[in-house]
Amino acid sequence: MSQRLLVVDDEESIVTLLQFNLEQSGYEVVTAMDGAAALHLAKTETFDLVILDLMLPEIDGLEVCKQLRQNKILTPILMLTAKDDEFDKVLGLELGADDYMTKPFSPREVVARVRAILRRVVHTKDTMEEKTDSEPTIKIGEVEIFPENYEVFFRKQPLELTPKEFELLLFLANNKGRVLTRDQLLNAVWNYEFVGDTRIVDVHISHLREKIESNTKKPVYIKTIRGLGYKLEEPTLNG
What we know:
The chain is of the alpha/beta class. Helices cover 42% and strands 20% of the residues.
C-alpha cells in the first residue's frame, strides 16, 4: 500500500510540482492550499507525513503544526520555510515539526528528504517490533521507556512524544552516562547529513526537558556537557 502524504502550500505551482514528483516516486498525495483545509484533512484522515508550508492563508503553518500536536496527531511534519527565516525554522521545530527545508528547493531534494524521514520512522517501528522479546523496559529515575510499544511514561503518566522525540530519548537512554556530540545525535536520529545544522538537536533536547525535567534550568536527566554535547544520566536522590 502506498504511503499517504499531505502537501500543503498556497502556491499552486509548488503543489503541482511536488504532487507530480512524489506520485512519480510511488506516494499517494493529497493536497491543500490553506491552513484550515490542511487541519481538517489531517484531523479526519490518516497520513504518513505532512509537507507543510509556513506562509499559508486562513491559518498559518506554525498554527497548523501547533494544533496538530495539541490534538495528539504525531504524524511527521516536514516544514517548508523561507530561505533565511531562522526564527520560523526554530519556532516550527519548537511547536513539533520534525524537519525543515528552505525554499527554493529541487523536487529531488524533497523526495529524498521525505524518503529519509519515512524510512527512519518505519525502521524505528520495525526495530521496536523485532526487539519485543529481547529489549526490556528502560527505567531511568522516573522515566520508563517501553521500546516494544513505542511508549514513554514519566511519573507513571504517559508522555506524548513525536517520533523524533522518542527516537532521540531512546538513543540517549541506550547510551546512558555517555557524552554524545550534537553531530552524533544528528546522524543517529535523523539518519542523514543535516548540512551541519545542529540547532534541530538543541530544539528537540529542549522539548524532552520540558516533558521530563521538573526544572528545565537545572536538568537532572539530560545534562549539557559544555563544548561537547549532551548525556542522559540517572538523577541523584537530591537532584
